[in-house]
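Something for you to look into today, if you have time. Could you write out one complete protein record for me, on any chain you like? Leave the record below and I will have a look.
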Amino acid sequence: MLLCTILVNTFYKIFRRAILMSKLRLILLIFIGLFFSSLGFAVEQKLKPLKVQLQWYHQSQFAGMYVAQARKYFEQEGLDVTFIPGGPGINGMKRLQDGEVDIAIGSLSLASNTSKVNQELTNVGQIFSQPSLALLCRVSAGVYTPKDVLGKRIGIWDESDKKIVIQMLKELAIPLDGVEFIPQSPESTELVNGAVACSTVMIYDEYWSVIASGVPFKDLLVIKPESLNVSAIEDGVYVRHKSLESGEYRAQLVGFMKAIREGWREAKSSPTLALETVFRISPKLDRLHEQHALETVLTLLPSNFNQFGYFDLAKYYQEKESLLKDQPEAISQTIWTHVIWNELAKDDHKVSPIVSSTKYYLEKFMSLSFFKILVYFGVFTYALSGVLEAVHRNYDIWGRLILGFLSGVGGGTLRDFIIGGDRIPFYYVKDYHYTLGILLVVLITSAITAIYPNSYQSAVFKKTKKYADVFGFSALAVVGASISVTSNMPLYWAPICAALTCAGGGMLRDIVINQEPSTFKGVIYEEAAIFGAGILLLGLFIAGQFEHNSMIVGVSVMLSLCSIIVARLMIYRYEWRYPKFLGGRDENIH
């Protein structure tokens, strides 16, 4: 009996404790549910609304953005995006300017025409990397080649299209009075019925409409602007310039660009699913037309999605020179920014202290005639040192040519071999002036030393060569560092490439003649190039804070050049050497 009582009491306590625990669990679960519900509500509340004005009706042109919305990429970035369709008579840039929308998708030409002082519009990211506009002509109308446009009627959609066509005509050397422009309907009906010989079309839209109307492929000639070296930047992401002052808004734009990049990436990898997303937005579209359109649009995207969103400055300045000459400089300076692109790169952990705009300005500076002359001077000066070494060793013409060539371009060859990519084939293969110049140096030096055998040993010649070597060394050091930066090498390679460009040729020459490199024996030589490269990198970093000012890049290059010249002169003047415990010797610098 006692045992039964104990068992009953034990089971009762366990049962009571279980009920109590279950109640606690229930309460805990309720609290957890309320917490996550409130969290979800808070996340939903935090979504920032963005109104995006499209350039045209809902269609495959915007498929990647629809995919981003369907896949909730915008929500992941804290955005609530609404797409507003465009159409005839709707100027999306004007609606953006008036504050009716937050973002507008459109062309650089339209944005530039709409932008006004104190109401500037700015491109913060680029979707298409090449133009979709083309001039579509009918062979049956007598247009067999682009030059046959002369004397024909051309249908145009708006003034932006007309500007591009006019520039194309200039490239074809066709006068403006040699053609007749007439307005056209959206479907290029005038081209189909023969009212015009040529018509401006979007290759993803009207082009396929013309084909669908029964015009055979063989009767059509497509003239693309890029084939005539005419740039037309389309489908960019534009915002009001003043809105970029807000850090919160810039963060939203970074999220927007990140979301549409993923949307377009997915559209490119799964075009069938992307097409279905388009039809969810607009079910009444023609399926075959939209399929062709999407296939074409995907070819307009960057081949490397790491470049998605990048506003190409080379294309911008090309279009600015040809199509935007009538735009005030104040407007053109604010029409683009890489601020969002740089933030996107930082978010992707691909940030570089030297920004893209600075690299572009550096590349442009390197293409200047003044800079090229400096490079030629440096190469030919080093080639002369190789030829003189060959003369001193009584080498024949072939030996002098080999040593001259190794000394002049050997360092650049080693540098470009390390960089690879666009640096191969080597620069002296692409530009015959290097080979021709070195050949002339060999022939002229050989002729002078034949007539005046001891001329190269005179004090005047040695002094002249010493200072020529200083300037040549400095020029090659700067170009070596600059090429490293513009080739997107890691920044620590800039001083290495600077030193290698200067000293590499001499080392190769010394290997050929079985001689120890003098720069390995305590002489301070390559160190001046490394110092100058550091000055250049510092200047380029500062230049990156002023993305619209190219002058700072030029100043940085010249400051680097001057610093190397001063360093070399001081080394000569004070005969600086490494201390003996580091290999220094009491030898003259050669």
Summary: Residues 115 and 121 are 5 Å apart (CA to CA). DSSP finds 23 helices and ten strands in the chain.
